[in-house]
User: Which sequence fits this backbone?
């Protein structure tokens, strides 16, 4: 269980985390989402006692990280930046950390094996690929067999098989009743891994809810209609709270009416329907809608603003 | 997954202690090749240079000017390698700390020992201890070989202050090691740490000579390398502090650096 209360971090004038309050519960994977610079890594560093909050506090199982007498047995962590001496072997890195808690060499071998680094464990960690580095970080996090794990972008740099492995690992840890808190940029990945999500933008809490809920709230109930008599149907559907747009001659995007209402209207007019699809926003789209106003670092396509995708949601923003 | 599940309940959970933190620092020190290379360099400096300088002193004895012969001391000659050894020890002392900051390792270290001070204490004890043991042996070897090479100009451990000077070598270098670790925790950056350390040890005495003559006696004897020189020398410079007051001043520099380093380590974000 991780509890943040009014957690705030300021670097000079920059407020990186702004009064965050949330609770991460055991037994489920909790995703931590937010655009670049939203304050995810900063929040995680404060959880782990590395950065001191400017205000507010965060506790793990009711205690501040710095007060834990056996932190590796309470919380395992993978940080965004590699936290490994590049000239030391993976094995010696783990052995040095294990020594602080009197953790046996057998456990060191065990976690090396678990993450699949046995063949390279005696090699310099500096020579590791991005994915191997992530695996070593995960091995470090699991060293003390902790009931809580905090992972900052664990799938960053992993190949598809590695991503799947992390996903299964996280779900497995949660299923064992552990608290699992994972940040990610890949919303689609979180949709597959997390049950609960905490969304931040510019250091502030935007949402703290289940993945299901977030998609439901953000979806705008647009319905895609394909009909040979699209023009006639369009006129019939018009109403005060209804918006209809069209990208092709026989296709309509309807918001403000349910698929059932549209279908009934069409039948009443004897209009044939070739397609009638309720559009659900993906987590990705939901996320973009939610954080649209909080994205600090926009990318731009040549000559054009980059946030013109997510067409199903465009009508709502305008 | 089964690996984790099967081991959840039966693993004994042990607390972090200062001793364990020190053991971890020991593993870190000996698992880096740079430690071995630098320690080897300091051993070679103390023994090799001591022997070499003793050899040349002996072979050039007849060409030495009278005032040079007056300043000559066989003990000091055989221990002259300390000046080079302090470079190696100083660099390694800074690196033991700043190497962790530059690679990000410090975050792993502080996450496993979140009270933080045992990390500093462990590094200081392990590095200073290794330095003392290694340099104690090296100083004795340098002395004995040096006296052999000096031949008729050589002396024995029974000579006045000889034993104290030989033991002074590891004492001085150990305190330099602690000073370096303290500076490492203050500066946190390799280049800056090394520059600060050698600025104080090597450059400051030279710069001090530029001070007004009336100020010099109030500054020069208190600079760390000047203050510490007495403990490994038989002949001391006039105008410098007595052996043990000088050594106490050197220790004060090291303690101050460690205290400031400890304070900043507790206070700053990692
Ligand atoms: N040590 C620091 N000093 C100054 N500013 C910082 C520091 N660490 C983070 N910041 C700033 O705080 C803000 C939040 O950064 P943080 O790394 O926590 O974001 P993030 O959500 O992890 O982003 P990303 O998704 O890119 O990893 C950013 O604007 C960043 O520039
Ligand atoms: Mg980040």
Assistant:
């Amino acid at each position: 269980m991780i509890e943040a209360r009014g957690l705030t971090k300021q670097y000079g004038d920059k407020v990186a985390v702004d009064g965050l309050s949330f609770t991460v519960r055991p037994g489920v994977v909790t995703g931590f989402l937010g655009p670049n610079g939203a304050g995810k890594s900063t929040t995680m560093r404060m959880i782990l006692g590395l950065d001191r909050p400017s205000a507010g506090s965060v506790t793990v199982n009711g205690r501040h990280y710095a007060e834990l007498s056996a932190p590796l047995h309470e919380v395992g962590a993978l940080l965004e930046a590699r936290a490994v001496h590049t000239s030391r072997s993976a094995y010696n890195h783990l052995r040095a950390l294990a020594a602080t808690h009197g953790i046996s060499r057998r456990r060191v071998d065990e976690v090396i094996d678990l993450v699949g680094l046995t063949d390279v464990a005696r090699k310099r960690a500096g020579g590791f690929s991005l994915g191997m580095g992530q695996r070593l970080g995960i091995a470090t996090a699991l060293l003390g067999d902790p009931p809580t794990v905090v992972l900052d972008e664990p799938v960053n740099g992993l190949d598809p098989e590695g991503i799947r492995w992390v996903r299964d690992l996280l779900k497995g840890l949660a299923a064992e009743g552990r608290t699992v808190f994972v940040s990610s940029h890949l919303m689609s990945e979180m949709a597959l891994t997390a049950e609960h999500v905490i969304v931040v933008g510019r250091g502030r809490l935007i949402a703290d809810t289940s993945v299901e809920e977030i998609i439901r709230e953000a979806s705008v109930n647009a319905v895609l209609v394909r009909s040979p008599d699209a023009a006639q149907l369009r006129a019939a559907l018009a109403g005060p709270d209804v918006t209809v747009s069209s990208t092709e001659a026989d296709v309509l995007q309807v918001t403000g009416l349910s698929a059932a209402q549209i279908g009934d209207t069409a039948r009443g007019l004897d209009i044939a329907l070739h397609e009638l699809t309720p559009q659900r926003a993906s987590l990705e789209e939901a996320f973009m809608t939610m954080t649209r106003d909080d994205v600090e670092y926009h990318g731009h396509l040549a000559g054009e603003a980059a946030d013109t995708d997510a067409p199903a949601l465009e009508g709502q923003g305008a | 997954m089964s690996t984790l599940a099967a081991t959840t309940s039966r693993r004994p959970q042990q607390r972090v202690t200062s001793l364990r933190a020190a053991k971890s620092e020991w593993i870190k020190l000996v698992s880096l090749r740079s430690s071995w290379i630098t320690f080897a360099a300091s051993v070679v400096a103390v023994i090799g240079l001591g022997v070499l300088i003793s050899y040349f002193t002996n072979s050039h004895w007849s060409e030495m000017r009278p005032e040079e012969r007056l300043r000559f001391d066989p003990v000091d000659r055989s221990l002259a390698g300390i000046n080079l050894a302090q470079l190696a020890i100083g660099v390694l002392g800074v690196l033991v700390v700043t190497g962790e900051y530059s690679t990000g390792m410090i975050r792993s270290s502080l996450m496993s020992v979140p009270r933080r001070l045992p990390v500093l204490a462990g590094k200081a004890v392990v590095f200073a201890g290794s330095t003392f043991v290694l340099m104690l042996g090296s100083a004795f070897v340098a002395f004995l070989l040096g006296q052999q090479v000096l031949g008729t100009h050589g002396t024995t451990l029974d000579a006045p202050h000889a034993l104290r000077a030989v033991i002074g070598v590891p004492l001085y270098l150990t305190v330099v090691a602690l000073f370096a670790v303290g500076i490492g925790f203050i500066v946190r950056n390799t280049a800056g740490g090394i520059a600060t350390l050698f600025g104080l040890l090597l450059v400051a005495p030279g710069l001090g000579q530029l001070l007004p003559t009336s100020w010099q006696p109030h500054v020069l004897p208190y600079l760390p390398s000047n203050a510490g020189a007495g403990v490994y020398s038989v002949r001391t410079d006039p105008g410098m502090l007595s052996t043990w007051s000088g050594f106490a001043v050197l220790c004060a520099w090291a303690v101050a650096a460690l205290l400031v380093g400890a304070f900043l380590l507790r206070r700053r974000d990692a």
Remarks:
- Chain B touches chain A at residues 1, 3-5, 7-8, 11, 13-16, 20-21, 23-25, 27-28, 31-34, 99-100, 103-116, 267, 269-270 (CB under 8 Å).
- Residues 117-150 of chain B form the longest helix (34 residues).
- The mean pLDDT of chain B is 93.
- Residues A 40-41, 80, 152 surround magnesium ion (ligand 2) (CB under 6 Å).
